[in-house]
Amino acid sequence: MYIKYMEENYFAGSYRGLLPDARLEKRVEGLMLALLNQGSAVINKSCKTLAEKEGAYRMLDNDSFDHNDLTEGAIGMLKKDVNGGHYLCIQDTTELNFTSHMGRIGREDKDIGPVTKEDPGGEKTNAGFFCHPVLVIDPSSNMPVGLSSLILWNRSWDKENKHERNYKNLDITEKESYRWIASALNSKESLSEADSITVIGDRENDIYEVFATVPDSRTHLLIRARMDRVLSEGIKLNKKISSSRVRSIYEFDVSKGKNRTKHTAKMSLKWEKVKLGHPSKRPIKDGIPAFIEVTVIEARELSESVKPGEDPISWTLVTTHKVKNAADALKYVKWYSQRWLIEELFHLLKTKGLCFEEAQLESGAGLKKLIVLALQVGLRIMTLRLSLDSSHKAKANIIFSEEEIEFMYIYMNELEGKTEKQKNPYDRGTIQWAAWGIARMGSWSGYKSHGPPGYITMKNGLVDFYNKMDGFGALSKYLDKDYLHNMALRISGELPR
Q1: pTM score, two decimals?
Q2: With pLDDT > 90 as the criterion, what percentage of the chain qualifies?
């Protein structure tokens, strides 16, 4: 049973054949498991023994492979789970700041460069690199499926500013903003077995060339508008949508957040089919049309539900999907609202749990390898948390190995109370059932009235789970493994008691 735990964990085999040798493959997969076990991207915290720490550092410093090889493995895990269906591909950028570690890394490191703004004197002081993943979501369950693209890059310390480079006249392929196109194209390839995909992006993704090059018969766009573009009829986008009639009214519950009070928002819904015009200040390149037909959707909070001192909620979305009725428009608005998931993933990587920016490595190349692994670990934690909000009854084996599930069956009785309210309410063997147990290990009460568990709770629960598995693994060496296996099966109901 547990004795083969390390060889049969969830990540096992994900890098088979992708790295220079099998030893490196096992080391990478073992490090991912260690990050998950201890809930930290800091090697000194995630690896328990000196040998494990030294092995992890050597692997991350090994120049026989790079972060792109690891990205290939992450995308491979996605591919094996996709066969037909429609998926949301949510892309965004975050910066990773290692300014406090520059005494260890050094400015000469080619994988580290300036991030954020310069100081008032024009000096580039903050150091790090940028991370642009594409998070794949199954809209039928609102659950993460994996990553379809990951682009990491850093700027040069001596790079000229936008004015010096005549940035506006550069070809799109020479701009950092090309990452939005490249990531969408990567996602089309990664999800080639899907029936269709919808690429979702925020205002920064509102680039004319994106609309001109990415869509096809199975690929759609859903992007929040930033540019007030001129339309084929000669008027601008904002004027067109503001003069349009309200087609539907709907309500949704707004959670308490930054500059936002918890309340029920009453929203108006508009949509119009338009033709976006090519930016007038740029020459039209070969293969780029002068006009592109899209649908614009506006969701705006009515004044009667806006709380004093707050701005009304307002989204203007541009999509290549056809909108036939209010149900279609509302569906696309809800799809766009899933964009918060990638922001949650970034928080989980940094401030909410894994503390990636505290990773004390001595090279940018090592940090770029580590972020690929940390993203996969963060996704596993996120999937667990989100499963409790989903009605989709997926099996626990989508993120847990057979051995892990068997141990969960054995230990779950310790997590349940005597009353019905204290029992695990989910079907045995489902991801929700497992998530409930992990949350309880993270000190969640189990009562719905106390609210759902957060990401920190889930992370802490996983740490406790694996610590207990370690102890059980040591004990199981002295016990009959067939007996333990049959015990788990009897508890699960697969064998008579």
Answers
A1: 0.90
A2: 60
**pLDDT average, residue stretch 201-207:** 96
Last residue of a domain, one of 290, 320, 350: 320
Look up residue 341 and give its two tokens. 């998931």
Last residue of a domain, one of 270, 300, 320: 320
Number of domains in the chain: 2
Encode pLDDT of 160-195 as tens digits: 666 556 666 788 888 999 999 999 999 999 999 999
The answer to whether residue 69 is domain-embedded is no
- From 268, 76, 271, select the one nearest 190 (Cα to Cα): 76
Question: Could you tell me which of 429, 493, 483, 435 has the C-alpha nearest to residue 461?
Answer: 435
- 22-38 vs 455-476: helix crossing angle, rounded to 10: 120
State the Cα–Cα distance between residues 493 and 497, nearest whole angstrom.
Answer: 8
Cβ atoms of 25 and 18 within 8 Å: the answer is: yes
Question: What domain range includes position 405?
Answer: 396-492
DSSP 422: G
Compute the C-alpha angle 87/88/90, nearest 5°.
145
How many separate helices (H) and strands (E) can be counted in the chain? 15, 11
Q: In this structure, is residue 155 part of a structural domain?
A: no
Of 417, 391, 410, nearest to 484 (Cα)? 410
Place of tokens 């310390």: 157
Both tokens of 316, joined, read: 């203007």
Structure confidence at residue 163 (pLDDT): 57
Does the residue 474 lie in any domain?
yes
What 3-state class would DSSP assign to 112?
Answer: coil
CATH of the domain at 486: 1.10.740
Residue 256 within any structural domain of the chain: yes
| Structure tokens, 105 | 């890394």
CA distance 226 to 157: 29
Give the position of tokens 């099998």: 22
The answer to whether 2 touches 487, Cβ cutoff 8 Å, is no
* 86: Cβ contacts below 8 Å, ≥ 6 apart: 139, 194, 195, 196, 197, 198
